[in-house]
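Renewal narrative, Specific Aim 1. Our central claim is that a sequence can be written position by position from structural information alone. The example that follows is taken directly from our test logs and has not been curated for this report. It begins with the structure tokens describing the chain, in the order in which they were read.
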């Protein structure tokens, strides 16, 4: 769903229910994707809750959590992004993938990451067997630059180049 079409997606879910049809994960994820593109954090969180609540009965997967986190990241709500990440891991069956980590890294890039959250996320990705991709590194580089750590940004650029050449990441 494009950013301007999220309301239509939500209406479709309501219409399905009014006709006695239980929406599955696809219409929910479509609506959440549109909400993410629009940065509609509050509505995305409500819809995610609705998925598992009395209205939905649908187990959110990695896509639903990624979209909700992206909506909150675009709205500048780091605490909510981190909370969704925690909830997703706590849910049991949903493991973050590279795209989920990239949403978190983009959030770090949008704010001044003085606490080194981006570096911790890259380390966590590797610890869980996920290889950071070019998006991961670019977000971490922007986060370092925004935190006024140019030497670290250059080091991340070198690490990205080494990873592209197949070398292990620096420790």
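The sequence written for that structure reads:
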């Amino acid at each position: 769903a494009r950013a301007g079409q999220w309301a239509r997606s939500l209406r479709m879910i309501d219409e399905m229910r009014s006709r006695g049809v239980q929406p599955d994960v696809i219409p929910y994820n479509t609506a959440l994707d549109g909400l993410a593109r629009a940065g509609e954090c509050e509505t995305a969180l409500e819809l995610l809750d609705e998925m598992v609540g009395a209205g939905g009965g649908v187990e959110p997967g990695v896509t639903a959590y990624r979209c909700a986190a992206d909506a909150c990241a675009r709205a500048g709500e780091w605490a909510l992004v981190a909370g969704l990440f925690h909830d997703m891991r706590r849910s049991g069956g949903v493991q973050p993938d590279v795209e989920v980590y990239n949403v978190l890294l983009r959030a770090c890039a949008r704010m001044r990451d003085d606490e080194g959250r981006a570096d911790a996320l890259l380390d966590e990705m590797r610890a869980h067997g996920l290889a950071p991709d070019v998006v991961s590194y670019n977000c971490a580089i922007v986060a370092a630059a925004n935190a006024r750590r140019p030497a670290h940004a250059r080091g991340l650029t070198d690490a990205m180049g080494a990873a592209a050449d197949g070398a292990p990441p620096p420790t």
